[in-house]
Design a protein that fits this description.
- The complex is a heterodimer of chains A (316) and B (215).
- By secondary structure, chain A is an alpha/beta fold.
- Chain A has 10 helices and 10 strands.
- In chain A, the strands form 2 sheets. In chain A, strands 6-7-8-3-9-10 form a 6-stranded mixed beta sheet, with helices on both faces. Chain A has a 4-stranded antiparallel beta sheet with strand order 2-1-4-5, covered by helices on one side.
- Chain A is globular and about 65 Å long.
- Chain A starts with a strand and ends in a 6-residue tail after the last helix.
- The relative contact order of chain A is 0.16.
- Chain B contains 8 helices and no strands.
- Chain B has one domain: Orthogonal Bundle (MetI-like fold).
- Chain B is flat and about 70 Å long.
- Classes of the chains: A alpha/beta (316), B mainly alpha (215).
- At the A-B interface, strand 6 and helix 4 of A face helix 5 and helix 6 of B.
């Protein structure tokens, strides 16, 4: 089995079927590029893989282990009514809670998601496997660069630190101090890795978009995710800044990071990706190596998309 | 009634004005958080109740609310309100809490959803996201609106004169009625200007202090 395998991802927003059965596979250290026109579902897929959206149906395997399975589709609900073979990870279904205030606007008219506490807990415990870099960076504007990178790691340490009085013992305090020091050093090293060693004390508003995105990459890396996801990381950047961000991503590949990149940068997908998926209308229309997808596309939709993306304006 | 006498009387009266002002803030700022939390609750009845409450409080004059709190208990339950200051304080605190709640809500709604999502994918707990990411940014966002409201509160304290709380305006009216001189009534303006001036400076300072970043 592949390092990372995702089977049968389905997602509806209300009556709109956004993802209609996506499968993908990725080996360790590989870079997967997801391309496709707007509205094809690529961002939704990535958000499902990061649990920012809960898919209606999906089976996710990492390192051979089934880390997440869900089936909230109508047929499953019907068949499960008289069967009681719900696996441990699936017992979140059919229990009401939660319509998040931070749901995406396009989901507003959809039914509130049915997520149980157990499901939420399960998801939160699996989040650490995945890192996410957003199109709009989403740095914390009120913290400086260093704190943006260290915050989550420090909170994670505190969450696992001894509780109650034990927390205030001399040993625990010393250990904490040591750990915080290490996190800071790690953050500095990561920021140097992305070329921002000079900007530790700057605030995000003082940085260019490219620099902000590189901080966001360092922020995701400090938690050592198994898979790092990028959601159109350069769509908000001009060509020069795009290049500096893509260069960082290319360097990360050399370091052996496994990555999934949703992108409109065809050149990047061609040169850096090991695998390319072309999505259209919520399904994987074409997949393969960059050579296969870009040089010898089989599907008509892929051909049309690639031709369109290479067309210059005056050919219209 | 000399100039100095008027000043002395006004300073006496300012105890009520400032007392009402500070105690109202002390109660209304946290109470607003509670009302705001209710208004943003996912539990429909609570949300509906909070919104109705806000509608009533914002939809009726503060002066009327002061009168209701002062005379309502006596008329309805036959337990007359003894303490005028307390009556004014209750009415003011509730009124301002409702307004504050709406300001808080506006500030929270203005937060980009990406901030929540960033916290989520970084594995931060809901409490951490709200406390460390959202709250400080909301404070900065609402500071100008809060400044506006707080300065309005200074002047609104004069409404308490309707239930004969001897604050500055009532004191001036008494002087006018007793000594047949009109200028003390105008002179109250200086006191309000001084108080709102201090507040203006305070909020300028506060805005400057949170100005180290732009959202």
């Amino acid at each position: 089995m592949a390092f990372y395998q995702v089977n049968n991802v389905y997602k509806n927003f209300g009556d709109v079927k956004v993802l209609k059965g996506i499968n993908l596979e990725l080996d360790e250290g590989q870079v997967l590029a997801i391309i496709g026109s707007s509205g094809s579902g690529k961002t939704t897929l990535l958000r499902c893989l990061n649990f920012l959206e809960i898919p209606d149906k999906a089976d996710i395997y990492l390192k051979g282990e089934n880390i997440f399975s869900i089936d909230n589709t109508d047929s499953a609900a019907a068949s499960n009514a008289d069967e009681s073979n719900i696996s441990e990870v699936e017992n979140g279904k059919n229990i009401q809670t939660d319509s998040e205030k931070n749901q995406p606007t396009h989901a507003k008219k959809a039914k509130p998601e049915k997520i149980s506490k157990e499901m939420r807990k399960l998801i939160d415990s699996k989040r650490g496997h995945f890192g996410m870099v957003f199109q709009s960076f989403n740095l914390f504007p009120h913290f400086n660069v260093l704190k943006n990178v260290t915050l989550a790691a420090k909170l994670k340490y505190d969450a696992h630190a001894p509780k109650g009085f034990a927390r205030w013992s001399k040993e625990a305090k010393a250990a904490r101090k040591q750990a915080m020091q290490e996190i800071n050093e790690k953050a500095v090293a990561l920021l140097e890795r992305v070329g921002l060693g000079e900007k530790l004390n700057s605030y995000p508003c003082e940085l260019s978009g490219g620099q902000q995105q590189r901080v966001a990459i360092a922020r995701a890396l400090i938690l050592q995710p198994d898979i790092l996801c990028f959601d159109e990381p350069t769509s908000a950047l001009d060509p020069e800044l795009t290049r500096e961000v893509l260069k960082v991503i290319r360097d990360l590949k050399k370091d052996g990071h496994t990555m999934i990149v949703v992108t409109h940068e065809m050149q990047f997908a061609k040169k850096v990706a090991d695998k390319v998926i072309f999505m259209a209308d919520g399904i994987v229309e074409e997949e393969g190596t960059p050579q296969q997808v870009f040089e010898h596309p089989v599907s008509e939709k892929t051909k049309a998309f690639l031709a369109e993306s290479e067309k210059s304006i005056d050919e219209e | 009634m000399s100039f100095a006498d008027v000043n002395i009387q006004f300073l006496e009266a300012a105890k009520y004005t400032l007392g009402l002002f500070f105690l109202t803030l002390l109660i209304a700022i946290p109470l607003g958080v509670v009302i705001c939390a209710c208004a943003m609750s996912r539990f429909r009845p609570v949300k509906w109740l909070a919104n109705t409450f806000i509608w009533i409080i914002r939809g009726t004059p503060l002066m009327l609310q002061v009168i209701v709190v002062m005379y309502g208990p006596g008329l309805i339950f036959d337990v007359p309100m003894k303490n005028r200051f307390l009556a004014a304080l209750i009415a003011f605190a509730i009124n301002y809490a409702a307004y504050f709640a709406e300001i808080y809500r506006g500030g929270i709604m203005a937060m980009p959803k990406g901030q929540y999502e960033a916290g989520k994918v970084l594995g931060m707990s809901k409490a951490s996201v709200n406390g460390l990411v959202i709250f400080p940014q909301v404070v900065k966002k609402i500071t100008p609106a809060m400044g506006n409201e707080v300065i309005t509160l200074v002047k609104d304290t004069s409404i308490a004169n309707i239930i004969a709380l001897p604050e500055i305006i009532l004191t001036a009216k008494n002087i006018v009625a007793t000594y047949a001189i009109i200028w003390p009534l105008f002179y109250t303006g200086v006191f309000y200007l001084l108080m709102s001036g201090v507040l203006t400076l305070f909020f300028k300072w506060l805005e400057k202090r949170t100005n180290y970043y732009k959202a």
